[in-house]
Amino acid sequence: MPAFTPELLAVGALVLPALAAAALPLCRRVPNVREAITLTAGGGLALLVWTLAPLVIAGARPEVAFGRLLPGIELGLKVEPLGMLFGLVAGSLWIVNSVYSIGYMRANGEPRQTTYYVCFAVAISATMGVAFAANLVTLFLFYEALTLSTYPLVTHARTPAAMASGRRYLGVLLGTSMVLFLPAIALTYTLAGRQDFVPGGILAGTAGAGVLGALLALYVFGIGKVAVMPFHVWLPAAMVAPTPVSALLHAVAVVKAGVFTLLKVVVAIFGLGALSGGVTSGWLLYVAATTVLLASAIALAQDNLKRRLAYSTISQLSYVALAAALFTPVAAEGAALHIACHAVAKITLFFAAGSIYTASHKTEVSQLDGIGRRMPWTMSAFAIGALGMIGLPPAAGFLSKWFMLQAGMQGRQWTAVAVIVVSTALNAAYFLPIVYRAFFVPEREPAADAGGHRPHPGHGEAPWPMVVALTTTAALTVVLFFRPDVPLALARQILEP
């Protein structure tokens, strides 16, 4: 695409999903056209980000200015390695999620499908804005747009339970943003006189250790999408949404936007040097460690499959906070790489959960005995995704955990090392029994109803678009283990100008 400059590619990554969102309502009565627009936009976005990524790896840092919001506060985009890595994840997985959505929404007869695809497209546009934001204010605006655009997806069913979950979703995410995140941005501007992202940070020497420690706390708890305890409650509640939305929340956009923002703040607002070794920042390690272990323990007790996956996400994404709390380059690389590794594995697991529900209407782990024999593609993909979560080869999750362990041992941060080892054992404890039940425990005969009739257990795999999507993401989990070149190259550049 030689005619397209890097700047145009960056803008196009935001504009293309937005244009799709504008066009979709015009086709609400023609589902095939509506879904063709979604797939075309998804494919176009993937092409844009994969065209832009090699340019960023080669040193390009495209910038686009939108204009001045207030004196000294500019709006604009700047594509750097960490944002490019996040943009690759969201831009690549949208089309796969769209293929899956077509199969899921049609097979389950979901209402308001046009609204669903519109909100999904707006959410992806906002996600790309978060990824490519040049400064804190631009990021904040797209971050909030992501919250608002995903609210209709969380409340898609419009049942009392869905509406209650939506209120919790908005309450926690908007509350933390307005009460903690926005004041943190204002204080940053007051201290540094600027709010742009700079490798090495902008806060060194601007205030004492106590002030910087308090500012870090505002960011950690104010970026509610990180789901650090106790501000994690919105995530399990949001599992009332359709499964493709759960995949969006966990793998493509929402929690990824949270951990990306936290990591970006640590490396490009504070700077690793300003935080390393400080008693006022050491607490972050223990907050992250508590979330990792406690969420894993709660996941172990969940029989509902989606809730188990939700608490797994809370634990897994706090690995990024844990690594960021080590304040070393290797740890930052591992945190960045984990964004990509977790994405492909976790979306596979949610795709599998949705396929199980669609094909057999089973939602509980205790109901999955023998289901791997009727759904071998789905459960094989689930097994690969589980290996990614545990961190075992040949799944990509091994790579990011290796970087984190290396960083912990190099810095003699034995607490971090112990947390990663113990949580890995807990991951195995709540994922491997599911795989074992699916393939090695005989399927139970369904109980008879009042008339003595036994319901049919199901008819094999879910519709083919769903199987294609989950097989693709499972394959990506393995491919990323053997060929991590692009995400690894970007992760290794996140501290470079």
Number of domains: 1
What is the radius of gyration computed over CA atoms, rounded to a whole number of angstroms? 22 Å
Distance between the termini: 26 Å
**Given the structure, what is the number of helices?**
20
Mean pLDDT: 89
The total strand number stands at: 2
Q: Reading side by side through the largest sheet, how are the strands ordered?
A: 1-2
- Unreliable spans are none
Estimated helix fraction: over 70%
What kind of sheet is the major sheet? 2 strands, antiparallel
Shape: globular
What is the string of SSEs from the N terminus onward? HHEEHHHHHHHHHHHHHHHHHH
Structural overview:
With 497 residues, the chain is mostly helical. The protein has one domain. It has 20 helices and 2 strands. Helix 2 (31-57) runs antiparallel to helix 3, helix 10 runs antiparallel to helix 14 (329-360) and helix 16 runs parallel beside helix 19.
Topology of this protein?
Elements: H1 6-23, H2 31-57, E1 63-70, E2 73-78, H3 81-107, H4 113-132, H5 136-154, H6 160-192, H7 209-222, H8 234-237, H9 243-252, H10 254-270, H11 272-275, H12 283-300, H13 305-324, H14 329-360, H15 371-374, H16 376-390, H17 397-410, H18 414-440, H19 464-482, H20 485-491
Antiparallel strand pairs: 1-2
Helix pairs in contact: 1-2, 1-4, 2-3, 3-4, 3-9, 3-14, 3-19, 3-20, 4-5, 5-6, 6-7, 7-10, 9-14, 10-13, 10-14, 12-13, 12-18, 13-14, 13-18, 14-16, 14-17, 14-19, 16-18, 16-19, 17-18
